[in-house]
Design goal:
Layout lengths: L27 H16 L6 H24 L1 E4 L3 E7 L2 E6 L2 E4 L5 E7 L4 E10 L5 E12 L2 H6 L4 H18 L3 H5 L3 H16 L6 E8 L9 H70 L1 H17 L21 H7 L14 H4 L28
């Protein structure tokens, strides 16, 4: 007979040995009670009743869960660009570096502060200058947090305090500057003075901030007088442009002038040497003539006289013509035209050469420039006087 065949109503054939008893889900209270008794025995509470065991176990489990949650909730992370300021019971405890850290929940509080990001704080408004002009000025300060503890706790709001200090410093500097300084030529000076004054103002407050730079945005006058100020600024720019052009012209002309001066100096030195050499040549020439003069004084004087007259007459356009006796006709020679044709090609007799014609009292055989030959049948050049 198979085990599941009915016999005795099927009560004696149950392989689990239930023998037909009522079966259902286990009692939860009984399970908890049994587990509590076992834990109670481990914790030394074997003598307590069943209800006390269940309460103790619940408290223990609750405490364990609460402890785990408290421990897990204490982990936090500080970013790479941040620093954490830890307060313990409301008092500063420490500064935490970037990374994973743990705090005692409900005991410590952590305030992360970004110390790497460059922040910006603007200041602007209409301001009165020293020369009683109204101008709209805009300036932007760039800064970052240097000390997180000072930044959080030394003042109520460090960013707002910096804004007020910037506005105060800017108004002071603009009030001690002229309109032209603020709009054009003195902008860099205004920026530097504003930064120095700003750092001086915030130093006693220890805001925990470090000023990196100040950006002085273009200032402008009120709209009612903007056109007039634009014209004034354009005139100033033209003035600077003309000055630069004049300086460029001066730099161009100055080397040329120096070159011309140097050339004139060299020409003067050459002329000096030329005159000196010519004088030395004249001295040497007269020294050579001196022995001949001593031998034949009259002939030497005649030669010197003729050479002198030749040099004088070669430079004038007037010529005295001597006609034969009994002939009243005047012979006209176009000497001016002849000299124009021979300009640049007139030759002179070398004064250092002594020819036999001079020694004999005669002029050279022929000369250029339209001059007549002495001894000609028609006319002769005759001096008007003699030394």
């Amino acid at each position: 007979m198979a085990w599941n065949e009915p016999g005795n109503g099927g009560k004696d054939r149950d392989p689990w040995g239930n023998n037909g008893k009522h079966q259902g889900p286990p009692d939860l209270d009984q399970v908890i009670r049994n587990l509590s008794n076992k834990l109670g025995g481990l914790l030394g509470n074997r003598g307590t009743g069943g209800g006390g065991g269940i309460g103790s176990f619940g408290i223990v489990v609750g405490l364990v869960i609460a402890l785990v949650v408290w421990v897990v909730s204490g982990f936090y992370t500080i970013g790479e660009a941040q620093r954490g300021v830890v307060l313990r019971f409301g008092k500063f405890y420490q500064t935490v570096e970037p990374g994973l850290s743990w705090k005692a929940t409900f005991i410590d509080r952590v305030y992360p502060v970004d110390v790497e990001t460059v922040r910006s704080q603007p200041a602007s408004g209409f301001m009165l200058t020293r020369d009683e002009n109204l101008v709209r000025v805009e300036m932007d300060v760039q800064y970052r947090v240097l000390d997180p503890r000072d930044y959080l706790f030394n003042v109520t709001n460090a960013d707002d305090s910096l804004h007020q200090a910037l506005d105060s410093a800017l108004r002071y500097v603009v009030g001690h500057s002229t309109m032209d300084d603020v709009l054009t030529v003195g902008r860099e000076r205004v920026r530097q003075e504003t930064r120095a004054l700003l750092e001086e103002i915030i130093e006693p407050y220890q805001l925990g901030l470090m000023v990196l730079d100040l950006n002085f945005l273009p200032a402008r006058p009120p709209e009612e007088v903007k056109d007039a100020f634009d014209d004034a600024i354009a005139a100033q720019e033209d003035e600077q442009r003309f000055i630069r052009e004049a300086e460029a012209y001066a730099r161009e002309i100055e080397p040329k002038a120096r070159g011309q001066a140097e050339r004139l100096l060299q020409e003067a030195e050459a002329y000096k040497e030329q005159v000196s050499f010519r004088a030395e040549g004249e001295v040497a020439r007269f020294r050579e003539l001196l022995p001949q003069y001593r031998l034949q004084p009259e002939l030497a004087r005649q030669r010197i006289y003729l050479e002198t007259m030749e040099e004088i007459y070669s430079k004038v356009n007037k010529v005295i013509v001597d006609t034969p006796e009994g002939n009243n006709s005047l012979l006209y020679l176009p000497l001016d035209k002849m000299m124009e044709q021979q300009a640049g090609r007139a030759s002179r007799v070398d004064p250092n050469v002594i020819t036999s014609d001079y020694l004999n009292g005669n002029a050279p055989a022929s000369q250029d420039g339209g001059q007549l030959r002495p001894g000609s049948d028609r006319s002769a050049i005759r001096p008007t006087g003699r030394n």
